[in-house]
Design a protein that fits this description.
Blueprint lengths: L5 H10 L3 E5 L3 H9 L4 E4 L3 H4 L11 H14 L4 E5 L9 H15 L3 E3 L7 H9 L4 E6 L5 H4 L9 H17 L3 E5 L3 H10 L4 E4 L7 E4 L1 H4 L17 H17 L11
Parallel strand pairs: 1-2, 1-8, 2-3, 3-4, 4-5, 5-6, 6-7, 7-8
Bound molecules: 3-methyl-2-oxobutanoic acid and sodium ion.
The site of sodium ion has 5 residues, from loops.
Length: about 260
């Protein structure tokens, strides 16, 4: 396989080829996602919810993100691996942001970092880019600021917020980000943003008028089952299937059906 690069993503947009992105947080899952041909693997801070069972993405630490990312990097032969900088690792000042990004690159071997926000974190993005580390932006619903908004509902429905989002997207392009994620905003606005910049826009709950799509792996294979937003397409129901299989195993042990004569030495 030829490795996907930040440059190949920009070329895909120019050619009108859509970009596929999925999250992964460990070696085994990342191996499957990479083998299936997904272009970008995101080591999302959604690991805080999916892997650790926290209610929000805020508690996950930089050390924990690096652990997840290094496992994913060992699995990915083709995909570009993007790693979320977690809450608290880049907001205080640009030097701290650069230190965090450098740790991710050195200690996990990831290929790029993702940060939530626009103008507010401009200096941090600049500094990281100056060090030669590719940055993916993230606008719209930004889960690290959940306590500022109070809900996970659709963002930028009001004109003022939509205008700020467009300005932020154009700023991220100007700074030199190689791509950006738009989360849970009206499809029309997302399309307008994608058409107004030349870097790829990857949407989640942002409609089909953008340059690519991202979902949380555990949601799209149905391993999680309590979370059902409209934008989520479930391709499997692994929660049900695995619960059944594991229940069967437990029953087989109890009934002494497992192991049988062929399943021992
Ligand atoms: O952490 C994550 O999974 C993300 C995606 C939803 C874009 O940031
Ligand atoms: Na994230």
């Amino acid at each position: 396989y030829k490795r996907v690069t930040t440059k190949s993503l920009i070329d895909m947009k120019a050619k009108g080829e859509k970009i596929s992105m999925l999250t992964a947080y460990d070696y085994t899952m990342a191996k499957i996602v990479d083998t299936a041909g997904v272009d970008v693997i995101l080591v999302g801070d959604s690991a805080s919810n999916v892997m650790a069972g926290h209610e929000t993405t805020l508690p996950i630490t930089l050390d924990q993100m690096i652990y997840h990312a290094s496992s994913v990097v060992r699995a990915a032969e083709r995909a570009l691996v993007v790693v979320d900088l977690p809450f608290g690792s880049y907001q205080s000042d640009s030097k701290e942001a650069l230190r965090s990004a450098i740790r991710v690159m050195k200690e996990s071997g990831g290929h790029a970092v993702k940060l939530e926000g626009g103008k507010e974190i401009k200096e941090s993005i600049k500094k990281i880019l100056q060090a030669g580390i590719p940055v993916m932006g993230h606008l719209g619903l930004t889960p690290q600021s959940i306590y500022k908004f109070g809900t996970y509902t659709v963002r930028a429905k009001e004109e003022a917020e939509a205008e700020k989002l467009i300005e932020d997207a154009q700023l991220l392009e100007k700074l030199g980000c190689f791509a950006l994620v738009l989360e849970k905003i009206p499809a029309k606005l997302a399309q307008r943003v994608a058409e107004s910049i030349s870097i790829p826009v990857i949407g989640i709950g942002a409609g089909g008028g953008v340059d690519g799509q991202v979902l949380v792996l555990h949601d799209m294979v149905g391993m999680t089952h309590e979370f059902s937003p409209r934008f989520l397409r479930r391709y499997m129901n692994l929660f049900e299937d695995m619960t059944k299989a594991i229940g069967q195993y437990a029953a087989d042990v109890k009934s002494k059906d497992f192991p049988n004569a062929n399943e021992q030495y």
